[in-house]
Amino acid sequence: MRALAQLAARLYGERLFHLIVVLAAVAVGAYAISVLGLRNLFNPTVWWQSIAVWFAVAVIGHDLILFPLYALGDRLLRRSRDAPTDGNGASQHPSRRIPLTNYLRMPTLAAGLLLLIFLPGIIEQGAPTYQAATGQTQAPYLSRWLLLTAAFYFASALCYAVRTLLGQRRSGDTTATAPPARSQMSPRHSDRSR
Amino acid sequence: MTPSGLPPGETPPEQPLLSTAATTAPPVRRYGFPAVLWRALDNHPPPGLSRIRWRSPLRGPWLTSVFGATLLVVLPIVIVTGLLSYIAYGPRFGQAIPFDVGWLKLPTFDWPTRPSWLYRLNQGLHVGLGLVVIPVVLAKLWSVIPRLFAWPPARSVAQVLERVTLLMLVGGILFEIVTGVLNIQYDYIFGFSFYTAHYFGAWVFIAAFVCHVCLKLPKMVRSLRSRSMRSVLATSRADTVPEPPDADGLVAANPDPPTLSRRGALAVVGGGALLVAALTAGQTLGGFTRPAALLLPRGRSYGKGPNDFQINRTAVAAGIDPAVTGGGWRLQLLGGSVPVLLDRAVLEGMPHRTVELPIACVEGWSTTQTWTGIRLADLAAAAGRSHPGSAIVSSLERFGAFNHAVLQADQILDPDSLLALQVNGVDLSLDHGYPARIIVPALPGVHNTKWVSAIEFRET
Predict the structure, then answer these.
(1) B104 and A32 in contact by Cβ < 8 A?
(2) Range of the domain at A6
(3) In this predicted structure, which of A2-11, A178-187, B416-425 has the lowest mean pLDDT?
(4) Taking a C-beta distance cutoff of 8 angstroms, is the pair B86, B105 a contact?
(5) Residue B164 DSSP label
(6) Please, which residues have CB within 8 angstroms of residue A152's CB and are 6 or more apart in sequence?
(7) What pLDDT is stored for residue B401 in this prediction?
(8) ipTM metric
(9) B373: pLDDT confidence band, cut at 50, 70 and 90?
(10) In a domain, A42, yes or no
(11) How many residue pairs from chains A and B have C-beta atoms closer than 8 A?
């Protein structure tokens, strides 16, 4: 009996528990669709307003749409940041420069996150339903988002400036503690963890 | 741009690149039945796949598990509050949407009227946490993306089935987030019924979520134990090294140098969640925090007057003709031996009660106001049925899904349940339901019917 179970597990590729759990999940999912009605997954007149289509896009929404976009953006950002230090000596003290990358990334991420979540208001999509529900218009959102975005970049620039000044002062004070280029982001890094 | 430096198709699963820690032997990669198929699949990767080089040195089981553990805490709250909201709508009276959900609901019970902020809390948590969790969900998806491009995609039937549940998991969570986010901003570009899609989508997700937790919990716990949070928080960018190679291939074989420490990555995700929280909480908490909800419909001010608070569905949108709300308006009470018609003067002569109650919408926003009106219990007595089993409240609004609502006995008889004529000391404005509206503690907002024309008190 045990040998049989082991054989079954080998053929299947996992323990029996795995099979039970996975089948239960698929069954509940299929049941949900059956209660909804297969027909209701599709909109016969406007194909893209179908639940099935939106679900399918949701499956690939991050991995095949959003991820390539932000990964590409990050690559471009890093590339443009890498360029000056590599070559023509745009910076006179390359060892003292604090990498700008994260100071660009953070405000971009914050602004991007808000754009992603609050896009309908920002681009004034669904204005009639919005007006019917609230008695107001979506007019303020674009400028609010732009102001927030400006604030993120400004705050980041401020942090960068402070960091740079502190870095310069420190390296001016004591040359002994001047860290190598890569660790300038983190002045205190004595505690190695692993 | 640069390929990893490994010849295509020969990437070893385990590459002790940086490591102190690659001490564990590579796991035996066995194929399930039919092995011929899986081996053939394994030997024929699509061209170009091996050229993908994962660059981040931060990806790994520990980081994924931190995100996973966070979601494991937060998502059950979002799920349960969502399912409770369905109950709050009153499936017993056929007014929960979608109407027919088979077995896919919590056991039905009578939604209580106490505490009066119950629905406010429920929806504040559901919508608030649902938004706050978005950065964590995205980070979790980012952290496991190498799995999508792993080859072969499966080595057994077990892995094929598990991948199906992962489609349900990933599609489910993003479908729920997208439909929910659009709904709270009144953007119905998706065209289908929000309630229906969000409800059934939730069950597809719940099924996959439970399955995923069952299968991955031990691995999550193991991974979390693989390093202490304390040491991560004490490690700078310069000292950040990749996690030891893992069997799932989350850890990059040939990563770039770190541009961010692991604690930095956690701070980015946590900061994103805090940012969303700061821009969301005001719509539920109200008061001086409301304007902080800068980008949400319910963070806006309507002015400083007694009727200047959040409107849900304007009189114009509901097609209310101001003429029928004037002197000719009568409240019809049904359920006694004969119908009772009351005009405004009679209603104003009845005993009044003033209560401070929140009104909370399924969309997560709420506002607390001071309402004055006649107890529903007194109206039931006036109708000639002092102990009703339920009541149907009808609106002057002729069309629209919420132009009537059924109240349970406890919702009628609660001493704070009113037919409100006034708010903050003045008559209701037309947009807030003049001449009269329902206000019941802990009732979903849309069931507090506006522009009430009739109440039928029923025996059961």
Answers:
(1) yes
(2) 1-36
(3) A178-187
(4) yes
(5) H
(6) A106, A107, A110, A111
(7) 87
(8) 0.91
(9) very high
(10) no
(11) 262
Q: Are residue A119 and residue A182 in the same domain, yes or no?
A: yes
Q: Are residues A130 and A182 in the same domain?
A: yes
Same domain, A182 and A111: yes
Q: In which band, very low, low, confident or very high, does the pLDDT at A83 lie, cut at 50, 70 and 90?
A: low
Give the phi and the psi of residue A20 in degrees, each rounded to 5. Answer: -60, -50
- Judgement on whether residues A157 and A110 belong to the same structural domain of the protein: yes
Domains defined for chain B, CATH in brackets: 35-278 (no CATH), 315-458 (3.90.420.10)
**Residue A194 forms part of a structural domain:** no
Residues of B with Cβ-Cβ distance to A40 under 8 angstroms: 192, 196
Nearest to B188 by CA among A39, A32, A27, A49: A49
Residues of B in contact with A10 (CB under 8 A): 30, 32-33
Of A26, A35, A129, the CB nearest to B161: A26
Q: Locate the chain B residue with the closest alpha carbon to A75.
A: B1
Is the CB of B204 inside 8 Å of chain A's CB atoms? yes
Q: A45: nearest CA in chain B?
A: B191
pLDDT tens digits, residue range B6-23?
Answer: 344 334 333 434 444 444
A175-184, B10-19, B63-72, B299-308, range with the lowest pLDDT: B10-19
What's the pLDDT tens digit per position in B172-185?
Answer: 999 999 999 999 99
CB–CB contact B171 A59 (8 Å): yes
Residue A174's CB is within 10 A of a number of other CB atoms, namely 8
Q: Do A50 and B239 lie within an 8 Å CB cutoff?
A: no
Concatenate the DSSP letters of all residues of B347-375 into one string.
HHHS--EEEEEEEE-TTS-EEEEEEEEEE
Angle between helices B118-132 and B61-88 (to 10 degrees): 150
pLDDT tens by residue, A44-55: 999 999 999 999
Taking the C-alpha atoms of residue B333 and residue B347, their distance in angstroms, rounded to an integer, is 12
Across the interface, of B196, B211, B238, the residue whose CB is closest to A182 is B238
Q: Tell me the chain B residues in contact with residue A19 when contact means C-beta distances shorter than 8 Å.
A: 158, 161
**A6 in a domain, yes or no?**
yes
Examine the domain organization and report whether A180 and A107 are in the same domain: yes
What integer is the mean pLDDT of A98-121? 95
Counting residues of chain A whose pLDDT is more than 70, the rounded percentage is 80
Query: Residue A175: pLDDT above 90?
Result: no
User: Which chain B residues touch A61 with a CB distance below 8 Å?
Assistant: 174, 178
CA neighbor of B157 nearest in space, from A7, A29, A14: A14
